[in-house]
C-alpha cells in the first residue's frame, strides 16, 4: 500500500519527519504546507514530486493524502486538527498540543466523537532506554523522581511570548512531565514557582519566565520535582529524569541510562532513533489499523497538557493546583 503524506510546517521537526518518511518503503511526502508558498516550495524540493502550498484547504482539495503531519508552533493548533478530523484524515501532531487547555480539550472531544488513526509526538517514549526503565519499574515502588530541562532560549520570536509557546514548562519540559507519567503514573497535584532572572535582559519582548521549579504529587503517593531554565548560554544544557526506588536509582538522559543498585551498576548507551520508531509505529497503524505500537495518543497527551497547564496556574496564583483526570 503506497502512502501519500502531507506535512504542515517548514521548521526543523518537519524536516526530521519528512526525511524519515522519504526513506521509508512505499511512503511519499506529497505536499508541504507553510506560512508562505515560498517557504513550502523551499522544503518541498527535498522530496521528489512534492508540492508546496500556503493554504490548508487548497492542499487537502488538490492532494489525496493518507495522513498529515502537524509540525506547527503551539499557538497554531486548533483549526488544522479540526479540519482533518472533519475530513477523516489521520494525523501525527507534534507536542505540545496547545498553549492552554481550551483547544486541546476541544480537539480531544472531536476525536472521541469521530475516531481516526492519530498520534502525538512524545518521541522519547520510543527510546529503548525508556522501555528498559518501564520494565524495571514494573512492580517496584517509586519513592521520588527528579527531572530537568536546562538550556538556552530558542531563537524564534514566538517562543518568547506566553501566548505563542505557553512557556518553557508547556513547550519543552512537557517531555519530562510526559515521561514521568509514562513511567510512574498520574499526577494529582502540582505546586510551581517561576521567575524571570536573566533572559529578559538579553532579548526584547520576553513574556515567559526563564526559571521554574514544580513539585508534583503522584497518585501513587510518590513525590517528584521537575525544574527548568532557558537562561543558559547556547551549547550548555542538561535534560533528564532520575527515579529513586528501594532497589536503587535509574538515571536517564537522551543519550544514556545508568542503573545503580547495591548489587549492580550498569550504563547503557544506545544509538536508537526514537523519531524513526515513532514514524514506523504511525505508518504501520495507517496500513493495518493496528494502533498498539503508538505510544502516545491525543487522550493521553491531554493528561500531560493538563499537568503542565496546572503548573502555570500554580505559578501564577502561588497556590497548589489539584489535577482532575
From TrEMBL:
Domain Gfo/Idh/MocA-like oxidoreductase N-terminal, chain residue ranges per copy: 3-117
Domain GFO/IDH/MocA-like oxidoreductase: 147-263
Record-level Gene Ontology MF annotations: nucleotide binding
UniProt-recorded name of the protein: Gfo/Idh/MocA family oxidoreductase
Amino acid at each position: 500500500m503506497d502512502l501519500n503524506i502531507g506535512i504542515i510546517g517548514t521548521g526543523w521537526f518537519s524536516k526530521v519527519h519528512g526525511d524519515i518518511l522519504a526513506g521509508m518503503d512505499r511512503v511519499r511526502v506529497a505536499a508541504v504546507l507553510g506560512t508562505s508558498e515560498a517557504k513550502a516550495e523551499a522544503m518541498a524540493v527535498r522530496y521528489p514530486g512534492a508540492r508546496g502550498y500556503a493554504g490548508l484547504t487548497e492542499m487537502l482539495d488538490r492532494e489525496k493524502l493518507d495522513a498529515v503531519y502537524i509540525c506547527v508552533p503551539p499557538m497554531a493548533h486548533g483549526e488544522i486538527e479540526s479540519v482533518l478530523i472533519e475530513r477523516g484524515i489521520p494525523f501525527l501532531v507534534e507536542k505540545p498540543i496547545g498553549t492552554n487547555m481550551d483547544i486541546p480539550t476541544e480537539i480531544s472531544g472531536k476525536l472521541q466523537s469521530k475516531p481516526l488513526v492519530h498520534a502525538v509526538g512524545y518521541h522519547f517514549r520510543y527510546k529503548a532506554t525508556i522501555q528498559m526503565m518501564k520494565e524495571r519499574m514494573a512492580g517496584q515502588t517509586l519513592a521520588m523522581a527528579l527531572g530537568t530541562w536546562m538550556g538556552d532560549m530558542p531563537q524564534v520570536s514566538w517562543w518568547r511570548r506566553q501566548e505563542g509557546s505557553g512557556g518553557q514548562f508547556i513547550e519543552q519540559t512537557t517531555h519530562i512531565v510526559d515521561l514521568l507519567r509514562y513511567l510512574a503514573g498520574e499526577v494529582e497535584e502540582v505546586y510551581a514557582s517561576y521567575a524571570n532572572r536573566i533572559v529578559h535582559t538579553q532579548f526584547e519582548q520576553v513574556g515567559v519566565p526563564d526559571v521554574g521549579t514544580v513539585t508534583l504529587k503522584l497518585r501513587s503517593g510518590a513525590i517528584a520535582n521537575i525544574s527548568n531554565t532557558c537562561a543558559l548560554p547556547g551549547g550548555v544544557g542538561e535534560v533528564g529524569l532520575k527515579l529513586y526506588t528501594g532497589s536503587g536509582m535509574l538515571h536517564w538522559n537522551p543519550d544514556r541510562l545508568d542503573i545503580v543498585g547495591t548489587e549492580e551498576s550498569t550504563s547503557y548507551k544506545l544509538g536508537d532513533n526514537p523519531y524513526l520508531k515513532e514514524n514506523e509505529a504511525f505508518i504501520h497503524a495507517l496500513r493495518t489499523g493496528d494502533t498498539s505500537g503508538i505510544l502516545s495518543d491525543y487522550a493521553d497527551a491531554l493528561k500531560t497538557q493538563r499537568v503542565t497547564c496546572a503548573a502555570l496556574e500554580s505559578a501564577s496564583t502561588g497556590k497548589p493546583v489539584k489535577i482532575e483526570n
